[in-house]
Write a structure and sequence with these properties.
By secondary structure, the protein is mostly beta strands. The protein is 9% helix and 42% strand. The protein is globular.
Length: 232
């Protein structure tokens, strides 16, 4: 009797049927592809009431960024530092804590130190608040866009936004840009990032007081050729 070889779609369907039959969901199977979790910054020094966002990235066994990876954030000392589901860490009282960032079966521990001083209460944020040019300095920075996808030699302009504890936006100035992986991506003083070679990179924006934010930059090699439509 001649055997029938299933096509690719049928093979995937059979594989998923087997996984679900064994009680393994598709999300669990995909989570097992995470071989490394990286978090920036790797350590936090906060004041009471200060917020800082963590950036987490997951990579597969080939070192490729997994853009659909999901992360959970948990503090081992929630009375000192609270970790929100979006990766924002809030200093509550002076002390030390560890925030564990988990994706699949891999994790990364971020050491958090909270010093005395600052606000004594953190209020809910409102992303739709208008920009206020004067008043207290920002307590959190964001970079737009994030993440950034480029091909070698392509560039993109990045923008920094500042926010206070109450969610109000504030203008920022004297931003210092830095590539944490200069061999992969470069950035100038105006926030223009350019991809150098294929790979993943991290770009950081910081203010004179030490407040900083990071964004991942993924540079993907693109195979292309210029084909003349008409030669004279």
């Amino acid at each position: 009797m001649a055997s029938v070889i299933p096509n690719r779609g049928e093979t995937v369907r059979i594989l998923l049927s087997v996984l679900f039959g064994l009680g393994i969901g598709a999300s669990t199977a995909l989570a097992q592809n995470v071989s490394e979790v990286q978090v920036t910054p790797e350590a936090l020094m906060l004041k009471v009431g200060q917020k800082q966002a963590l950036f987490a990235a997951a990579f597969d066994p080939g070192g490729n960024l997994i853009p659909t990876a999901r992360f959970t954030y948990a503090s081992n000392n929630a009375t000192v530092a609270q970790a929100q589901s979006d990766g924002v860490v809030i200093g509550l009282k002076a002390g030390a804590a560890i925030v564990r960032v988990v994706s699949g079966q891999k994790f990364f521990n971020v050491a958090v130190t909270v010093g005395a001083g600052g606000a004594s209460e953190v209020r809910p944020t409102d992303p739709g608040s208008s920009v206020t040019p004067t008043g207290p300095p920002p307590t959190m920075l964001t970079i737009d866009p994030t993440p950034v996808y480029l091909i070698p030699s392509e560039n993109r302009r990045l923008t920094v936004r500042g926010f206070r504890d109450d969610g109000s936006a504030v203008e920022v100035s004297r931003v210092t840009w830095k590539s944490l992986t200069p061999e992969t991506a470069a950035v100038d003083g105006d926030g223009n990032v350019v991809g150098l070679v294929a790979g993943h990179a991290i770009v950081q924006a910081s203010l004179p007081g030490g407040l900083a934010a990071t964004t991942p930059v993924e540079i993907v090699a693109a195979d292309f050729a210029v084909v003349p439509v008409r030669l004279i």
